[in-house]
Amino acid sequence: MPESGTTSGAPRVSEIGRMTGFSDGVFAIVITLLVIELQVPDHAPGELLHALFEQAAAYLAFLLSFGYVGVLWLNHHTLLRLICGTTLGLNWINLWLLLGVVIIPFPTSVLAEAFAHAGTDRDRRVAVLLYALVAAAMSAPWLAFFAYLRRHPMLLREGIDRAFVSRQRIRPVVGMALYLIGGALGWFVSPVIGLVGIGVMIFFHAVTSEGVRRGRSRRRTTT
Amino acid sequence: MPESGTTSGAPRVSEIGRMTGFSDGVFAIVITLLVIELQVPDHAPGELLHALFEQAAAYLAFLLSFGYVGVLWLNHHTLLRLICGTTLGLNWINLWLLLGVVIIPFPTSVLAEAFAHAGTDRDRRVAVLLYALVAAAMSAPWLAFFAYLRRHPMLLREGIDRAFVSRQRIRPVVGMALYLIGGALGWFVSPVIGLVGIGVMIFFHAVTSEGVRRGRSRRRTTT
Amino acid sequence: MPESGTTSGAPRVSEIGRMTGFSDGVFAIVITLLVIELQVPDHAPGELLHALFEQAAAYLAFLLSFGYVGVLWLNHHTLLRLICGTTLGLNWINLWLLLGVVIIPFPTSVLAEAFAHAGTDRDRRVAVLLYALVAAAMSAPWLAFFAYLRRHPMLLREGIDRAFVSRQRIRPVVGMALYLIGGALGWFVSPVIGLVGIGVMIFFHAVTSEGVRRGRSRRRTTT
Amino acid sequence: MPESGTTSGAPRVSEIGRMTGFSDGVFAIVITLLVIELQVPDHAPGELLHALFEQAAAYLAFLLSFGYVGVLWLNHHTLLRLICGTTLGLNWINLWLLLGVVIIPFPTSVLAEAFAHAGTDRDRRVAVLLYALVAAAMSAPWLAFFAYLRRHPMLLREGIDRAFVSRQRIRPVVGMALYLIGGALGWFVSPVIGLVGIGVMIFFHAVTSEGVRRGRSRRRTTT
């Protein structure tokens, strides 16, 4: 175990082992709890097949959220590979970030209910807007994480420079903007279009999960 | 922590620590959530014993799925012993694989409900078919995992050769074929026969969980 | 990571890291899920306090099972400190052992329901008997674990001798016997006496959680 | 793995790896389970937005408890950084401490129900009192933890002195006193004032999560 002492006055630095273990536990539970939304449908005898098909929207919401949490985990994986230690401040930002992860099953089940059952068009707009707002709010702690690392470069792992960290801030900013646009589309135009916009956004996070880099300056940040 | 750098252009390799921790978390939660299906049965005063016996099908479904997830964990255990590092691509395949694990409680509870309560013969066929289809679909990411390792032998742990990895592909292929046959038997012939077929298939995965090997070429792949 | 190779033919030995992580995950989830049984009671407006008191039996069942799972974790902690590696066979026994842990919330909620609500005396006898039978059945894999270690002393950590392992077999045997007696008392004599007997048994496991040893031969098995 | 042997007669010391992993698992699950309280509200078609707003109290209870468990995790993080080994006695105290963590969702949902739905003023007083009593009772094992460390200084990590440990005892004592005052305020004066008092208390634990220290003697206790 590396002991990375700090000078008195600077925040105390500790290992990231427990931060990683706790975060992985939270991600694992959230991604698994999503399936609880999938219930055996009430059905008349002999009508199970029909009832299962009627739940198609709930399956889609499940897959959407599974993909979302999976992408978040990959992004978190990359995030923690930037650092070699943590502080109380960074632990708080990580907790804030996990709050966003933990809350996902709630807008997911609102979404699934609005699209599956007797949801009206208005309820669907509400559900898409709620999902978009939660997703946008979840981007804030990621921005705070990068900002904190810029101010405390001593936490950066060897081989990671501040310029790389600065570039990453574009991701949560784009996230916030586009989730809000997706929510607005869902609210003012059509809930289905809003849902597609959210799906596009998750895809954006998926392809940038290893960080935004410039063409040839692809640094070696292996772990 | 070993730093296994890669040449620029090749996928970045990172440690498998978090992949392992996250996967173990997911397996632990899924195998524990199965028990939630076991509810105290509604019963008239004094009729608890009778009501408990009437749930026999739910207990069997619980044991079947516990054994299934346990076998999957043993197989996953063996799988990760093949590699010494992971990449973004392999993380995606692992997430896909975990999707299959996470989803198990849903077809399990459909199965339990169809066999326990007022399920008709038709509903039971549907439930067996659903279970078989999910189990067959779960085999695909395992095939993808082995295929990925064949194309990226640098991820293989010392002492594991590509020929061994190639041989393992037979397992998910047999899995897919036999689960589909089990589902077809359940649908066209008899739900109980289909269920037996699925049980046989899980047993096959159990006995091959350390990998398929040839008689005497038993390599030492200790970890 | 130590590589402990084995000669061809002997079972392959692997590290206990994942076995430990997976087991800890299962224990953590089970001990946490117990609280789900504690529900906000239905109550008339202003009658919350009264309704909370009426749930006293559910609180006791919760505490009993929390203590039980805690004791099991401590015992498991001591168990894994005996070994320095695992095999496929030992993984199977560990899964069997975890099956017993995972199932605890079910007899617990049966017990809570029988003692809390409109349970008759007969239902309470059934609930105590069920709890005792499950607890007795849970002792079997512990016996199998010790028996396996006796046959494979190479898995024992340095400083642990076979005689110590042999002595431990007394614990699951006593467990099985006394749980069955507790169940019989609950069934034939009085459910409350049976419950007390189970509590005594859990206490016995608590005080012997570090293993049964002879007076002065207290070996140093620090980890 | 460091082997820290003890002289015969003294309690056997073992590593804190499993204690940490198990505790992190429990914290991760509790903080994630809190979201289960957030249910899609029953609502007339088209009234989803209105119904979501009516659940405001449940969202507040969720955030309060998320912050609480988060603060507890940070405190536990700091706690385990004091020690370099554990004993059976300390494992028991840690289990007792986790009992307090695990139980949080129950008073939280009582609180949410009393403030959200048709709760009367009297029910709200009961709910605030219950929350305060549980929170006060949770402080006891923290005090026991510090007391145990004072009696077994060999468990302290290098660089941590007994005086520092002694000073920490003030925190659970203040916690117990103030939670009880908060509960009394909620019971005798106003449930809302009691709730504010509890919030203040959680804030106190948050700002002291790295331990109470004297002005300039700020020791370097990096890990």
From TrEMBL, chains A, B, C, D:
It catalyses: K(+)(in) = K(+)(out). The keyword Transmembrane applies. Keywords: Ion channel, Ion transport, Membrane, Potassium, Potassium channel, Potassium transport, Transmembrane, Transmembrane helix, Transport. It is a multi-pass membrane protein. Pfam families: TMEM175. The chain crosses the membrane at residues 16-36, 56-74, 95-116, 128-149, 170-189, 195-212. It comes from the Bacteria. The keyword Ion transport applies. One of its GO terms (molecular function) is proton channel activity. Its main location: membrane. It is found in: Membrane. GO terms for cellular component: membrane. InterPro entries: TMEM175-like (IPR010617). Belongs to the TMEM175 family. This is DUF1211 domain-containing membrane protein. It comes from Micromonospora sediminimaris. The lineage of its organism: Bacteria, Bacillati, Actinomycetota, Actinomycetes, Micromonosporales.
